[in-house]
Batch of 4 targets.
Target 1
Amino acid sequence: MHRASPVASLLIILALATALAFLASFLTLYDTLRPAPPKGFAEPDQLITISFILDGHPQGVSRPQIDLVQEASTGLESAVGITSNLVRWSTDGRNGEVSSEWVTTEYFGGLRPRVLIGRGLEPADHAVDATPVAVLSHRFWEHQFGGRTDVVGQTLSLEIEQPGPAGSSWERVGAVRIVGVMAPEVEASFGQGTAMWLPADPLVSTRFATMGVPDIANRIALYRVIGRTTGERSLDSVERELIAGLVGDGADAIVPAEGRLRVDPGFTFNPPARDEQLRQLQLLLTLTLLVALVAAINTGLYLLARAPARTREMAIREALGATKLRLAQQLCVESVVFLLVALILALILAAPLNGQLRTLPFFQNADWRIGTILDPGIVGILTVVALSMAAISAAAPIAVMNRSGIHSGTRKLGHPISGFQFAGTTLQIVIAGVVTAVTLGLAAYAWELEQRDLGYDRERVVVIVPVFAQSMHFAQNSLEAHQSRRDRVRVALDGITAFEEIGFGLPVPGGKFRITMGVQAWSVDGESVDVQSVSSDIGYGSTLGLRVLHGAWPEPGDPSSVVIERRLAQLLFGRADVVGETFEVTAFPGEPPARTVSAVIEDVVLAHPDDDQDPLLFVEATPFANLDRIILKTSLSPARVREAIQDRIESGALELEIQDVYALDAQFLRIVAEDRARFRVTLVAALLTIALAAIGFYGTQRFLADAHRREFAIRASIGASPSALFRLAILRAVRLGLPGLVLAAPTAWIAVELLEPGLLPSDQSPFAMVGTASIALLVVLLSAALAPAWRSAHAPPAAHLKDD
């Protein structure tokens, strides 16, 4: 049978392999991302991550706050701070730049990772004046030291990045003595790739020694917190105790009352992000399982498609002595061979596919653990799925064979459609309808995001990001200093005719870095309003095309005049036209608390259109004005802009170091990249599901055409025209597909309704998605039925009326 239709067999195998390859890839991603006890640690089930969440993002803590965490719960055995940093190393003519983990005192004693050679870091190693030491990762040890056991006691030269008043530089720590090598199963605490573990206290003191801020090593929030519980209490109990002591307005509070503290098993750098990534994977796994189910049903329908043609073969073999069991075994072997070939091909395809899927925007910065597609657990699950699919696909042909006899295919007017064919066809159509409706919903949402009014112009706007130096955080420049710096840059750039407008400010809507200063404003009723302040000069609004509704942007040098959004005007005064009105805000140093409204603009979206955002207050300079972005209105590409500015820098006309140059419209597409990627992945699943459903429906129609050829021949011989026979075949196809279409509509409706609000456009009714999906499926099914119907209507009657 398969030799007779090699193309169809190949298509079925490719469809099965594709479905299994996606399933293998998503299973591997899920396995390497889900919370799991870290390998290589004693009693790993007791290891936890303690996260302090503010505005949906985990916040760092200072060195003294780690001690507060330790003291806040009797259920904690140890609390450890960890921060990852790049370091430069060199020894014996070899050198490089690698990631390192700087850990606090209790890392080795409290968490107890397994050390293969030598020892871990001891409390004495964390003293500020201690001899620098390091513990190497197993991978770094093997690659750079050849796995030599005499590495303990050797030294390597180490440099760390040190911020200073003139910017960052690399500072030599000196000769660092190697005291140990980690076991191979101990990975980085967060993610992969750590080359060495270093004591944090002396390195942090060295790193920030030139900042000129007293006790900065204990004040700056560098650390994420991991730890070990005593094992005597539940994580929920430990979490509640930590929340009671560390969240709120108390003296020891680490996050304010609007923040959140959470305790998670294992080590996770960003638990909220991991939760979202796992949610995406669960959605994709569900879609993949549906596609795999459709592929299995499709295989069964394909094996049934030529059942009438194989009835004679089976009957003759039975007459020659083959038992029903023997014939059933043959059909089972055919299905298993199909699935095994598909499984092998799937494992070959899954490895590169897995790498591509990891680059999807919603998986960026994920904490992947080391894992492969050939992991025994993954291969076991795939084997079970493949065998289940083989059982599903073999069930129908066996059922048909059990009804067959030696003359069953010779003189019957037609074979009735089997229960498997009816149920399989219906289920395929339902699944295709659900996946198609969900895909249409995601497509509508992605399109609606790109069309939404964000309050600014994205076209022909290029943003320049100067090099960032941590010392800028601590510079106390006056408004006059900010104006002078902006004027110098403006004069240097004014000579470039392609630059139509120039502005300065931070943050830029849609920009890569959202740095704002939270303040409070008071309405006329005395109510406080949380506000985000934006540093902006007079060119900021015109370059970005911010729409002024009332008033005008204030002239430079007037810190008391501000620009506010329409929604802030409504919150403060209950109306939009409030030019000349005054209100008070929490003032920056040296600025008046009373502000006068100079202009009211249309609301502006800083980041993702669906993100929650406080109202914006535009002032001439915030404490972060040193980090201003330069905003240009120009037709030049970012690359040409960089070249033009670099020419000014090299000529001495401009003193500036460029970190990045990007187009604002391209950056906005990066902001909605997750939504676009979600749609593209779902689209692949939808197209594959629809294609499989169409092939399955075509196979069933081909089966019916073969099964009813005598009936159609008799109708033709007594005068039925080809057009009448064609209409009859199409009518039967519609009848077969109608139950699936009827069931697909409410099922797709439920699936669309179950999608979270953030995945569908707010102004779109599910009716549109479900209706469009139903119409599309009807067109696909009718198209699949055309060729078999044409064949039935135009077959010569004599060829089918003669005896077999």
Note: Residues 404-413, 470-476 have pLDDT under 50 and may be disordered.
Target 2
Amino acid sequence: MKMRKLARLLPLLWRDLVGSGTLRALWVFCACLMLGITLIAACSSLLRLVEGGLATQQREIFGGDLVFSARAPLPEDELEWLDANGTVSLQAELRTMLGTESGDFTAVELLSVDDRYPLYGQVSLQPEQALQAAVAQSAEGVWGAAYDPVLASRYGLAVGQRVDVGGIQLELRAEILEQPDRSLNANTRGPPLIIDAQALAATGLAGPMSLIDYDYRVRTDEPAADFRARFRDEFPLADVEIRTLADRSELIARRLDQVASVLLLIGLTTLFIGGLGVANSIAAWIATKRGMLATLQALGARQWQIAVVFIGQVLILALLASATGALIGSTIAWSASRTLAASLPISSDLVSLVWPAALAIAFGVLSAITFALPALGRALAAEPVVLLRGAAEFSSRLSPVYRRISIGLVLGTLLLMFLLLPEPLIGVVFIVVAGLLVLLLDALIVALRWSVRRLRQMRVLEGRFSLQIAAANLYRPGNTLRAMLLSLGSALTLLTAASLVIFATLESLDSTVPERSPSLVFYDVQAAQRDSFAETLDALPGHESHVLAPLVLGRMTHINGEAIAARDDIDQAEEANDEHKLSYRNSNIDSTTIDRGAWWPDDHDGPPLVAFEDREADQLGLQVGDRLRFSILGDELEAELAAIYSQARFETRFWLEGVFSEGVLDPWITRYIGSAHLAADQDINAMRELGAGFPNVVTIRTSQLLANARDMLGAAALAVSLVGAISLAASLLVMSSVIAATTQRRVYESAIMHAVGARHDAIRKSLFMEYLLMAAILTLFAFGAGGLIAWGILEYWLKLAQDGLWRTGLLVAFAGSVTCLSGGALWLIRSLQVSPAMLLRRGA
């Protein structure tokens, strides 16, 4: 019986919805919802495509089932064991300089491979040929090489040219089109140059003191964990790091989840802002349906029947808007995946987009109903006489039934949010921050109400009719300040914080860092070359100063006698396998600042002391005074932790993890790092001279690093600007919905005031002052919250100066507030430019 009654309501539902299609409130409702779902669907779909690509190509990317990494070739017995239990391919990696025919030098990642490379996948070359043929030695005795496309685009390298690497010339025989295990950080370490293993020996770069990574990739049908355990049982003292495919996949998945959670959080924030627009749009739409609601109730329609009509209309609109947003987001993700496919393994399976799109649609529909139900519930519970009288505000309390349904919808929405977010902790933080923001705004409104009352008691507002009305409109029931602060305040806070961080970073890259940075930095200066290299630096044209410091690689094994590898914390236990870069405090070569403890005196001649980098120290839980034991080239060194230092992010060049007191590392020094300050425009010529005389020394121009950093920052600034623009667009939609929801009430009240003698000028002035006060509050809110966020990022993460930035932040917040609110004020003032009789008829 009830189903037949429900079926009769469907034509009414559809006709009323079609007839309401021209209402601005419904378009705002759809736009707010679609904007948030578009971002959510785009982020979740792109994540699914990347995960799918990694899942299908993970062995090709990793290069094998296991990788045994060492700083020296494995002993014969260990290598024989690997060969007997699996298929092994050796790849040696080192950074070095490549010299072009024009005399230019650049850093490259030199990769030597054997006949078994690659174990998984294949290397595609242009012109098409086998990799082993491309890197083989010709009849004339010239070794070949395959080069990365980055070298072709940046330095104009082409097939047939010859380049200098170490002590030999290589012939470029092929450009690498596809390399399955190309490192994702190859663009920062240097583009790959693949050569034969015998060619590496011929370069003279593979000396006993050279910094070479020997990676033995293993292919096996045995479970990787069992293979590793058997090797450790057979060779318990082997100085080798063993990584499995599962280890790498888990690490990549963790990083992807963190990035995706942040991106989805942006989408959820936009949806949260847009949700306010949804609620206000529904309130404005319901206000136009008061007559229909009253008529249906007066004719005997039951509340559930009316609820079916109106909630059904909201469901249909939410489904259409969410589906449109999911379609647009999936299209964006697909387009982005095709662009990123050249550098990332991304799936091309369109079916994988179905689940994230469906989840986004469900989240959008549930969120829309959650935000809309309170306004619907209050309207549906109102008596016909209240509706016909045209009361502007319905009861602020929901009935128990609607309250229980609303709580259930909120819990369902939160559950879906945790399903969407790969990192649940970020969802918890989002909920806590959103709750604190609402509490802060409520406290602000309470403080504003108290302030206005105090001003009235002090008679400050006496005789100022327009100012009294403007101040009262900010805190009375049904005020727009809360919605404006939640929407525009959130967007402007994001915009202000991003502007401050980007401005400070650009200022540092354009002025502070170039003033302090050296012209050149050096890696892998052999100990035997130190004196001649220093003499060459002194003789360079435009030489001003230079500094050289030793670089020793070692592993921290014990803290206060406790073995790090035996700790229960997996992340801390893995630190025992990490190599740390150790050196001396030569002229503060790495721009460090002591945070805890203190540097030792320059003439310290006591027991060994060490200072450690703050991020590593905090991860291991180090405290000043701890006893640390290191393993260096098979020897052990114990030292007391005297200090913990931080590094200037954009001024740090070597990222040294440990700095020892003078003389402690002398028995293990085999290479040096350094930097040089030169006169302007002398770095290119100096780099050429050093490259020709010391081909094994990796030389980097800091001006090129800064240019790359500016490019990356420009891309980041564009991305942040787009996110800020989307959030601001959602906020403007919310503002329009807020104004639409309160227009009838404001028009009605203005008509009453005008009818009893208030002049239009006074009414318009009160509106102008109200929005001016709101702009001031928004400016202070966005400046305070955004400035606090930017200060935390600049002070504790980027460690950049903040001088003179706050004027910029205040200007951005003020300009954004005034620009947004002035449009709303003009819209509302135009609505009042009719006669009182017309205003009263419209308000009724």
Note: Residues 112 and 197 are 5 Å apart (CA to CA).
Target 3
Amino acid sequence: MKTFSKNISKEISLLLMLFLLGWHSVVFAQQKVEEDEATKAEREKYEDLDYKKFFPLFKPTFDSRINDYTLQDLKKVITYQPLELNPVFQVSDYYFQRINDFDVLREYQAIHSTCDSALRYIELFEARLDEKEVKKKGKRYYMEFLKFPANDSLPDEKVNMNHIHNELKRRKEVLAEQKVEVDSIYLNFKASINEYLIANEIFRDVCGTYPTIKELYIMAEYDSLFEKMAPMKTHYKKSLFYFELYKKALEVHPMEGYTTTYSVLPIEDYRIHGLTRTSFLTDDIRLWDYSKWYDEVLQFYKDEIISMRSMVTSYDEKLEALVLQKQNTATPSEERFYLDLYTVGKIKKYDPNAYPVNIYEYKEQKINLLNQIAYSKVINSGLKGDLKYIRSQADVWTESEKAKDRINSIPTDKESVGYKKHAKYFESKYNDNLPLYISNEKRFIDEQQQNAEKLLKEIIVNYFSSTLADSADFVTYEKDSISLEPIHESNEFLVRRINTLHVRPSKDDHKLLIGTIKDEKSLEVFVADLDSANEITWVTRYPYKKGEYQGLPTIDIPYINIKGGSLHLMVTVQGVKVGENQLTLNNKVLILEQRSGKLLREMSLFSNKYPRVFQYMQEQKSYLVAYKGRSKNNINTYDTLNIQNIKVDGEVLWNTNLMMQGMVNEIIALPNEYLVVANINKLSNLDGSRVLTGTQSNFGSFNTGILKLDYYGTPINGTVLSSSESYQTIFALTDYDNTLNLIGVKGDYRNYQDYSKSEIMLITLKINNLKVVEKNIQ
């Protein structure tokens, strides 16, 4: 009756479709019914298949090889009889049986795919396997596990879970080992070929550029040819190295049909030998010896061509030309300038302590100083608190310090042996009066350093002083307005609903206004994007549930990070929640798209203390956060400083607790460690066994402490940059040669500070040993 009803229903559906859509739709419906019928037939076939009868047909013995047709049947059984678990293992066995069926060099991907398939089905089987399955069906399906290698030495006659897990573990180990061995063969073989082809291509390019060996030698200095050819030797050596690894891999995983030997041919006739390529798949692998050829021509070049004294003069002229170029251009280079080590090496081969090299090193540093000055001018956006500009000015100061060190290292004693070795050079280039040259250069360095200190002082005053502007321009928003910078309200009875807390430069000459919206009805964070004409392009608002609090809670945005096209906001809300009688402090990170303001993610931070440092590390995709005190102004006491490294998904990678009286300034992430920079009276571990102490104990009379943490946040060592006069670091930065720069002001810390009358503080130290290089404090 059910079948009859279904058929009647189908006929009625067809008549309705005929009436509404016409005969064309009827034909389409008939085709669909036929397709459904085919699917139905397949389903009924495999739903009705008796697996316990099917199993002994394709697996009469434990080592029976499962064929391709059976594999398809097993996958259908898995689909239509999902409660039947054994087919999952049999599919894994099908792939496991075939992991040695492929040619490693020609079917590398197929081996990996087969191993991955075997592992995937093993894991699917293992995930669903339980005692019930083994007890119920062990005798029927799983007795073969007693004969597999993991268990064949055991006397057991009844299979259990341990037997199955033993074999599955063995198979996973075999699969992993198979992939490692296959990788070792294929990747080393491929690397050997690639490295040789690169060496061959470099040689062919040289032959195509220089038609004769004589022309090669003549043009070598002008074209820096040997620097360009050096990788050829390296790649050739790497090719042989990887071929040896390939041979060793074949000893572990033998494979027939491929040779493991090669012959090396000398390059005796330029542009005749060395041009042809070779096939690594033939029985006769013949390699041109590019390493020996490179060594021979280089030695001839050294012995017969180079004139050291002309090189000394010509290279100095080249550096001087670069200095002039930097002085006359407003466009900085993207990369740092370095001396040509090959040229310096050639000079030092004959004179290891060559005095001209000291001048080269100073001019190298002068080029970088001029480049940094140009760079700082280019990125000066004119916006107050541009962090890139702050860093650029600190780098000008740093480069000036380095230039001062280099100029002081130039020897000037005419009677010394080193000076006499290059007397004609000093006479022709410096009129035999190095002291005059050095004196002029020192005046230049001092001028640049003083300018940098002046600009840094202005930046500190404008950006880090606690005083706010008394007035500002506004931009209209809805029925209210937003100030274009943080302001101080002159009327204490007038509290603005929309309060700008931060201004940051953005892309395409835009800027971001970041602040809060707070009134009796609203408690929100806002971000507004303004174009170059100060027109609002978008506003993003993030509301909090004000009704959860008694009265009006405080809301703050202590820190902002803009990296990788995203805006990361640290938001702190403090108040008394409904039904409670104590203040609670909630921290949350909001991540917005910088261009559009779209909210990408939000993350609650489970700490009831106020954040003092918030830094997003783009490469690690995690945050460095330091907490101290129950509120923003709770900073005076000697209590816990909590530092965490938190992934963007909320996972805490490490958590470190210290004790501190003072204020943490910054946490700098280095490749394998972290630097905690803090203005302190005292900093220690929790039990007080390791202590860093400033020269004074009164809060606010600080010295700067530097504490190193290892990769996991564990304190390693530290130092206090002691001074009899109190000072505070405001900004800390690193460059690329193991240097840490601290910028701040001299004098005691105050809650509301005006740095306009403070003297600037500058310290340079080495990161590896925390030793001070330069400082302007006593």
Note: The chain has 18 helices and 24 strands.
Target 4
Amino acid sequence: MSTGPPVLSPYQLVMRFPARLRAVLGRMGAWAGFSPAQPLLMFPPRLGFTLRTAFGCLLALGLAYPLEMGSPGWAPLICWAVSLTGGGESLSKARWCIMGTLLGVVAGIAITAFLPQAPWLFLPILALWTGMCLFFGSFASNFRTYGWGLAGFTTVIVAMNAIPDGNTVFWLGMSRGTNIILGVMCSRFSYIIFTGDPAAGAWEKLRQNLEQSFGNVCRILGAALEDQADTRRTAETEITRILAADAQIEFLAIELRGKAHAGPHAHATLAALASALARIFGAPLHYPLVRHYQELVESGGRIPPGVMLFHRVREMLQRLPENLFAEPGLQAGAAERAEARGGDSETLSPSGETPLILGELSELRSQALALAGEVEVSAQAQAEAEEVLMLTVLANLLSDIEIAARQLRASLGYDTDFSLSPRKQDTFRFPHVRWRDPVLAMETGLKVSTAVMVTSLIYEVTAWPEGKIFVTFTSIICCLFGTSPTPAMGSFGFLAGMLAAAASAFVLDVILIPCVEVYEGMILCYLPMLLLPAFVQPGKRTGAWMGVALIAYGFMIFPMTVKGNHQVMNALEYFNRVQAMVLASMIAILIFRIVFPYSLRRAANRIRLSMLRELRHICRLPRSFRNGLTADKLPRSHFFKGSFLAHLPSERLWIARSLGRFSHLSIHTPKQETAAVQAYLFGLLSTMSLGLSIIRLQHLLAGQRLPAPLAHAVLALLKQLRRNPGDTVAAAKLAGQALVALDQEGSGSRKAQPALPDTLTPQDRALVAGCLLAIERVLLEDRSFLCQQQPPVAPVEAFPPRPVVAR
């Protein structure tokens, strides 16, 4: 039975019209002799988004006029500000915009009520409150930071407008709040009209992001196994991209309406992938003779088990993304997934068994640990130590990949290991920790306080009639860009957009709007001006600030053209207002460049010292464990049931905090990284792998799986790292002594009495040896990063031969 063509909605027909018209014009141009690369008419890809935003802004302005709202220009301004391409981003920004506005309105009313006739106390308190909002905003993430900034400059708007008559402060606050809510509602309405249900494409976006990250990580790990050049640089770049994708997961989860806890599982997937890449910075992975595998097979000789294992892992990494995403469950569309979530099925997994590819990962990890357990590690056998280190790192890496694969399937709703059926709610949570820099937060708060105080002083001394606008827009620009990685560049882009908006506002205020008497004519005047940003293409050199300029253009065009409900802006008022706004933007740029300019090197050093402090913290053991450890026995089990297990460091939290520091530094890093910045980034990842090895040793201690002499040696190592992690040579010697104790445990009387309760199993022996060797290598290679008095200079590009440490 044949089916007819699909029925398109009116919106789909309208959106397809530019593509059809462009195709027709392209054929006409080709017939006339024009090059296809230069069509007669170009419809930019952002035209649909700009048209949607303009519709929302004009709707907000059209509702603000008949509702007799004070300052009706703020409603379309907020609609333009909260309109973003993604539905989750737009909804999140709108939510925090409303919360920040409510906080700012309450603060503005309270400050004005308590200090009505004390200007020399009122203005400093206002500047102090604005700085406090930016101080707390520096500790937030995503649009929570925007909410704190909005609370700061909303307080300034309400309080400064109430200076002529303090009795009107309540009505000014209510007017501000209603304008904000109206702008947010119009932005959401336009998004629904032009886009429809955002959840329809959210699953596919989530799947594409995770699939791309998974495939890139497998490719980089395969390159590391082949010992390709610049693998560590590629891994560092990919971790930065993964963290950027991780920040977008929150918005996709909003579009999915929290179904199946896709957000926490996606966060866990990306964290596991980043942890796998960080393993590259702790030890080499190029196993000898792996490159010559085909020659060994053709010669017919015996292939060593290690070579066979690494070759299998390399092949598995090449086909893992395709096999993982080629299963029927992951290929299902959004409609099928939604139907599965609302159906009566007992489970969402397409099959009742774990995929075979995940079982192969677990099998390869067990083989790596088994091979490492068979190798004898001694003080003289350097080659054997290298082999054990590579095998254990490979086992840990495969464990991270397996965790990432399982969490990925759970985030898409298809994994039997997590309770995702409609009758069993998924309660998985992933700690999303963001590193906080109190010094940077304090500097940001002081910057904004200084800007508000300086402009307020100018207004108070000169009695400038437009001084309120001057102070207000200075606070707006400083609050918007104070927590930005590049505030000076952002404020410069805002100035460029403001100047472009001033040019368009001149045409509107002086030429077009005075000739219009009805709102429909005003729409025809505003619409071409609002669509202009869609036709501007940022270049490579101007892309850093052009995006901000395009946003600032629509942000500023309404305050420059809308005066009141029954008033029209004349030429004199236009020039006075634009002059105050431009001077406010220039003062903001000056403040950002003079007052506490951002220093990347100082910030990187603060991050390094913070990581070393936490490294010392995870090396700390409870007093009950230290007191219970004697020369010939381990503590009794009740020591582990109490404070030890309660204070045992978590790998998940350590990874989350370490990636938070890396994200903070990489966001503030320019595109062209210097050697010193790369050294800091590499050092953070190496220290992250060092902490993972330390945590693994502590878990072995907690499980009573180490004999007493070996536990004493490990305890001495942890004590040295806790006291002075900068003395890397002394800590490396203690790691070597622990390896000697491990060697003694595997020889002599221990081998003769395998039934002893404190004898190490081969798997535990491999884990301990791998952790100690990884700790020793990181301590010796990254001594410049770990030394608290000597910051790093340049990154280590390749792994040098392992030095011999006296044991």
Note: Residues 382-411 form the longest helix (30 residues).
